[in-house]
Write a structure and sequence with these properties.
Blueprint lengths: L9 E2 L49 E3 L2 E3 L5 E2 L2 E4 L19 H14 L4 E6 L1 H4 L8 H16 L3 E6 L35 H4 L1 H12 L4 H16 L5 E5 L11 H23 L4 E4 L22 E3 L6 H6 L9 H14 L4 E2 L11 H14 L3 E4 L27 H4 L3 E5 L1 E9 L4 E8 L4 E5 L13 E5 L2 E6 L2 E6 L2 E9 L1
Parallel strand pairs: 1-17, 5-6, 5-12, 6-7, 7-8, 8-9, 9-10, 11-12
Antiparallel strand pairs: 2-3, 4-13, 13-16, 14-15, 15-20, 16-19, 17-20, 18-19
Helix pairs in contact: 1-3, 6-7, 9-10
């Protein structure tokens, strides 16, 4: 990261270690007082703050419950899912013609980057990859890899997510190709708005999940081969941090609790071994079921995956799904605390892979803000559902952050918020107040380490005027558009950002 002039932030820095000192160790005319004002009437000279650093790539590793980057910093992931529109032809979250893909991709990712995100959960379907058994759609795969590379160029990490819902298209779902279905000629219902009930109420969905878990017709073998193709195609991208084996798997006709423990857990172990045989340091993300996403409780056992395991459940408030509105009565905090307890019991990080609401719903913005407040409390990673820049809406779900005309919904305002993206040290706590736009971070700093904080420009920038005061005790800071970099001398550190 090259040092650049600070153009949009005015830093009022409390310098207790980086400032000049006299040879005798006492105060000098250039010292800065603890309240940030010059000692006496002397104006201090500018303080140079070297925050230059070299991060070889964007890959991460687990360290107990933490994610760390190549510099050993604690990383917090905040991002979005790249769309329900990715579930059906042409299997990307934005419209394009064959000769406009590059331009459409850049436009799509620039908006995501402007929100201050650092990760994308990038869904793909087996139907997109292998529409005919044994034949890979190389054009689609090349575009998917191009999307990964373009995201990396903007500093966005990627989670490669095999996405399915109620198995496949004929059941109002997505994911598995038609050739993988026992009766592929079954036409989908005309009304798919209540697709979710297919997990328990559609015999075809249940039967085909049974086939997968029992490896009937070699279906699980083909699934493993599919994953080998995807990992080989994406493993060299320096921003691919890992792979999510299957989105919201279904139990079929089995008892859900017994199945989660006795079938899904060993399935995850088996598929993790397949993926690790192709990419031995990749993170492995494991999801609970869609039904468990409504209650934040799981019967899944911790898979015996030696390193790099991340628990990646979802959460949707049931009353919001049923009524299409949030009245503020059911707060997400207790449910997210339960998911965090699973991570603590397993000794792994937790990424909330999905949470969301229709942007036009009553209480939508407050609903998303409540999720982030709860996630901040336990330093939970998260990818909001979802971001599709298109008028084509999967099953009339209506949960995209933007509409088909590119207009941002109300929930974007709650998505865009500051957070500690990479901390050189140990995070004690952080907090953001959306009303005052005050952000606070307390951490035990590693001496001379560089901490990176996301400060979205739309919150802390204004036309022709400085927009924020930044206070850091025991260090110095440099701002670039959308980011704040802090170098600290070590020990307890307290950072405060206030709008002007």
């Amino acid at each position: 990261m090259a040092k650049t002039p600070m153009t949009s932030l005015l830093l009022l820095v409390l310098i207790t270690a980086c400032g000049p000192a006299s040879d005798q160790g006492g105060s000098t005319p250039d010292a800065v007082a603890q309240d940030g004002s010059p000692a006496g009437d002397v104006t201090p000279p500018p303080v140079l703050c070297d925050v230059e650093q070299t991060l070889g790539d964007l890959r991460l590793r687990t360290d107990g419950r933490l994610l760390r980057d190549g510099l050993g910093r604690e990383v917090l992931l905040r991002g979005v899912n790249t769309g329900g529109r990715s579930k059906f032809q042409p299997f990307f979250p934005f419209p394009f013609e064959s000769n406009t893909f590059d331009e459409a991709l850049e436009t799509y990712l620039l908006r995501a980057s402007s929100w201050g995100l650092n990760v994308l959960r990038l869904p793909f379907t087996w139907e997109a990859l292998e529409p005919i058994r044994g034949r890979i759609d190389e054009v689609w795969l090349a575009r998917y890899v191009q999307m990964i590379d373009a995201a990396g160029a903007m500093g966005l990490r990627v989670i490669v997510d095999f996405h399915q819902d109620v198995f496949a298209r004929p059941f109002c779902g997505d994911g598995f190709p038609l050739w993988a279905i026992e009766a592929p000629e079954v036409p989908p219902p005309e009304d798919c708005t209540h697709w979710f009930i297919g997990y328990g109420g559609n015999a075809g969905v249940r039967r085909n999940f049974d086939r997968l878990w029992a490896n009937e017709d070699g279906l699980r073998d083909d699934f493993e081969a599919m994953w080998r193709v995807m990992v080989r195609a994406t493993r060299d991208a320096p921003n691919v941090i890992g792979y999510e084996i299957i989105n919201e798997p279904g139990a079929g006709t089995a008892d859900p609790q017994d199945w989660a423990s006795d079938t899904l857990t060993p399935f995850y172990e088996r598929l993790a071994a397949v993926i690790r045989s192709e990419s031995d340091e990749a993170l492995i993300f494991v999801d609970s079921t869609g039904t468990e996403a409504l209650f934040a409780e799981t019967s899944l056992r911790r898979p015996a995956i030696e390193h790099g395991l991340v628990f990646a459940p979802h959460f949707y408030v049931p009353s919001v799904i049923l009524t299409g509105r949030w009245d503020g009565m059911t707060q997400p905090g207790p449910a997210l605390a339960r998911w965090d307890e699973v991570g603590a019991a397993w000794g792994v990080p937790v990424l909330l892979g999905e949470y969301g609401i229709r942007p036009e719903a009553e209480g939508a913005s407050a609903y998303i803000a409540a999720h982030y407040a709860a996630m901040d409390t336990v330093a939970m990673h998260g990818t909001l559902w979802e971001y599709s820049a298109t008028t084509d809406d999967w099953n009339d779900e209506g949960m995209s952050l933007v509409d088909g005309l590119g207009r941002e919904g109300a929930t974007v305002a709650s998505l865009v918020r500051p957070y500690p993206a990479a901390v050189a040290g140990t995070v004690a706590a952080f907090d953001y107040d959306p009303e005052t736009r005050v952000f606070k971070l307390d951490f035990e700093a590693t001496p001379d380490g560089v901490t990176e904080v996301v400060l979205p420009s739309r919150l802390y920038a204004s036309e022709g005027a400085d927009a924020a005061d930044v206070t850091i005790e025991g260090g110095c800071a440099v701002a670039t558009p959308g980011r704040l970099f802090v170098r600290h001398t070590g020990g307890p550190a307290h950072l405060v950002v206030r709008p002007r």
